[in-house]
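Support reply, case 0932

Customer input (verbatim):
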Amino acid sequence: MHWLNRHRLLILAAICVFWTGLVVTAHFFPSVPFLSNIWRSEQSFEDLLRREGRKTATRADFVFVGIDQASFEFQPFDEAQVANNRALQLMAAHAFPWSREVWALLLDRLFHAGARVVMFDLVFSPNNDGDPVFRQALDKYRDKVVLGANFDFSGIEQKEVKNVPPNPALIAPPAMEDDRVGYVIFFPDALDNKIRSTRYTITDLQLVQQSPVPGEKPYESLSARAMEKLGHAADVPRDLQSHVMRFGDINAYPPHPLWEIFDEKIWQANYHDGAFFKDKIAIIGPSAQIMHDFANTPMGPAMPGSAVHLHALAAGLGHEFLVNTSRSVNFAMIGLAGFLAWALVAQMRRPVLCILMLVAVSIAYLGAARILYDQKGVLLLVVPTLSDFLLSGIFGLGFEYTLERMEKLRTRRTLERYVSKNLVKEILDNPDSYYHSMLGSRKPVTVLFSDIVGFTRLSEKADPAALVKQLNEYLSGMVAHVFENGGTLDKFIGDAIMAVWGNVSSRGVDHDAKAAVRTALGMRAALRKLNGVWKAEGRTELGFGVGINHGEAVIGNIGSYEPHERLDPTVIGDSVNLASRLEALTRVYGVDVLIGPTAAELVRNEFHLRSVARVQVKGKTEPVDIFTLIGARSDSIDVQLLKWLESYEEGIEKFRERDFNQAKILFSRFLEFYPDDFLAKMYLERALEYEQQPPDEAWNAVEVFEKK
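Our regenerated output:
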């Protein structure tokens, strides 16, 4: 066994440990290329969950009044539109920012319509016209209005952050402690600058990125102040922590143009004389592109800042917060993923099943992540966990595949020393199919038997070591041609070879038969070459006989089913027996190759054949015509031989027709050119004999052989 196979489980474990360690290490190096993508992609996946998963329900009582482009640069349609309309007159007087009397008029209109709370996503830090009027309105509606404040981070490097509250003309100092003032800033994630969370409270030390101290008075956000105005002070998270929001739909809070609130016709038609705002919670803020108050959020790259405040308020009121699993839990899950990948690959030796299990587990994990998100608000670590699981599994399968290929190659090379290459390929590539075919089936096959002439006599005299060496050289040379022509080496029977075509796979009966005949031609040439070498070395030359036959045979594993016994894949049947008999008859007729009638018909168009005899072998009741092989039609063959073989074939016909005189003449004519031809001399002797003593009427030119 290869050492890789011996240490298979350990190597698989090392692969899983490597990927697990790499994924965990990537967490601590967020700026390293490739590694950082694993954890960055986790945020992208979580954003996908936010977009596709359960969202915070849209609040019907939330209204976003936006300072759109038309409001920002308000131009009246006609004088009648602004006549007796103080707010539109002030807006038309000059572009934003307008006199703050506009905001006082807006508060009057909204609260007279029945609004519960009005928030300003605006920071009124510099003094401006109308401040006294606006202050009166703020004091009048102090329990229903919230103004925005900000922070100046220009001195952050010196650990100094300044407050930017509403100006003292509006809110008396310290303005940041007034319950009508809340900060409007959100703190985006450092990796991709997206806003995913909100801080309802924050301290000065936290603003300069330090830990808060006990007793430090926190600032409150715009949404936290609004929750207090609504009577939900107890629901404001006061833990000084960032809270991941479950956003609502991206189009949950579309802006209503500010100028429409003051236009009497639209106020009557679209807002039903203010009834639309009854019990509403309104936020006033920019919606025009020119004001650049847009935030990059998981729901979209350009959500108006005021809409983000409404999402934060909705999350706070509904306790719709998301919770990330802790770092220790995340690392434990990554480790478990690596272990599970190791267990699957190590135990499931079927790659397809293992791949299906990897996919199934991944889908199940994704489903669990979605359920936990929707039902519990838990953000389960997905991308790093599945990355470790799938990378460990895929590379583990890659190692398994490599190991299997190495083992299969080693097995193939070992088997090919004993059986044919096509049989080895079929066994290794389609083991189940091959096994079922070997249970027993009937197929047309071409069978070749070859045997060394006089080997028994030779073995009694030769040196054993020299004989074995010579026999191995002979068999190696012969078997090479079997394999070269796609045959299956069925077995060695001493010095004999049995080869089959069509038992494992077939390209057609004629192709199988021709491949067997080409093998015989190759064996003839190889033996001629070997004899030349042996003669030069002073060793005994060898001769062989080859029998080829085609027909149906039973294919299957033959042998003992007892434990530890042997089963041989082989072919049996009359067609196989006839091939063996033909090989034996080569000695009788003085030829090296004999071919049965069916095989002869299949190959005649590519090979020159010569009739030999009509025989009835032992075990057969019907005679068959047998032929010997001259050569391939594509080879260079003596043209004169082919010409005079026509006389020989005509002589065979006359002989079988009992015209012995004419047969004698034709055989004699052939022997004039080829005086040593064994078959022509044999038939000439018989023709002369039968001419003198004709056979009885039952004679049919069939030679009957009672022995094998």
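We compared this against your earlier run and they match. Two observations from our side: The first helix runs from residue 3 to 6. The first strand starts at residue 62 and ends at 67. Please reopen the case if you see a mismatch on your end.
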